[in-house]
């Protein structure tokens, strides 16, 4: 009994010392606007570094997958709408350039998960820019979800565990919702003017 009491007393005095003199523990909460826990945010940002080193090939693969599943979307892209085969698409400089641009947008978004104001402003702007594309429908943003996940899985290989996959699903959903918010705001501004 005396032993247990001394452990409690020692623990209590350690806790008091920790409160009085030590720096606070690292932040374990995230911005309430972010639908990820601190651990999930860390996981996605850490694993994204590997994707960041392969932005262009990951992006090209993502677009090839997009066009395999949604051939009609190819018509929105004036610079490479005539590339009907996977071979033509994978060797196209125009497609590679667009893939790099889109992946850099995703890269900036994921890297700014620590700063929700920057994240939201950046992705709202990216979403708004799509209002300039003739025939673009806000629902088209959702069509990139599965190709994005396929491309990230291909790039991360064995590091793409079930846990990592579930975190990327939450992340891409949040990114797409944010792009759509930006698109919708820009559409309603256009309608007012």
UniProtKB/TrEMBL annotation:
PROSITE patterns tied to this protein: GLOBIN
Gene3D superfamilies reported in the protein's UniProt record: Globins
Sequence ranges assigned to domain Globin in this UniProt record: 35-184
Keywords: Heme, Iron, Metal-binding, Oxygen transport, Transport
Disordered, as annotated region: 1-35
Pfam families: Globin (PF00042)
Name of the featured protein: Globin domain-containing protein
